[in-house]
Amino acid sequence: MGINLTIDHDLNRASAWSTAIGKQLPFATSVALNDTAFDARQALNNGTKGAFHKPVKFTQTAFLVQKSNKRELIALVYAQDKQGKDRARYLRFGIAGGSRPQKGLERYFENAVPNDGTIPSGAYFMPTSLVKTNASGNVTQATLKRITKGISGDKRGGFFIGTPRGGNRPPGIYRRSREQLFPYFIATTDRPDYTGRFNIQQIGEKVVERRFNQHFQTALSKALASAR
Asked: Within 10 A of 17 (CB to CB), how many other CB atoms are there?
């Protein structure tokens, strides 16, 4: 006893299967791209914990996903650069290295509050050991509010921005108390330099290598099953 097989029968089945795959392939690819992109997003956000010293939640949630669709098979993983939530501006120096520009706070101290005119243009304000920082090493909001409130332009009391008279002290932000001066920030034109240490390209490539094929096979199987 045998089994009779015909070429026409097998070709018809193969043709139908090929047609089904052709119809579902763009959709399955899009699903796989998006799933892989979200894996990469998680890997990059988690990677900030190793690349930076105690990063805040603002940094740990920096990366977002722009999803693909079956007509445009491109998924984008990117650091948010929206005004007021500009994670990309802070991350780019950890990624590529280089000298950072002034922070908004530094521009504010230089231009928006009273000083004696000795603060150099484009100054960077480096905190001293007197400045309280949070667990992530950033200046606390309470400290900044206290300094801002205490700056009156009067060197006889409170905080002032400028260069103390007498001695050889550099320009900065000082607090005068009981006839003593306490430096909180030193103003300098030396740009802080950063070394690139967050290799997002390498992290992304590893995720694609490990996850895309798995996501694609799963998505294609589901798409073909639903098309029957």
From this structure: 11
SS3 state at 178: coil
Say if residue 10's pLDDT is above 90.
no
Give the model's pLDDT for residue 138.
75
Domain locations along the chain: 7-98+194-227, 101-191
pTM: 0.65
Task: Look at residue 188 and give its three-state secondary structure.
Answer: strand
Element (H, E) at 93: helix 87-96
Half-sphere exposure at residue 50, Cβ-oriented, CA atoms within 13 angstroms: 10
The pair of structure tokens assigned to 144 is 């900044």
Phi first, then psi: what are they for 182, rounded to 5°?
-125, 115
Contact 122, 130 (CB under 8 A): no
- CA separation for the pair 33, 39 (Å, rounded): 10
Q: What tokens appear for 224 in the block? A: 């073909």
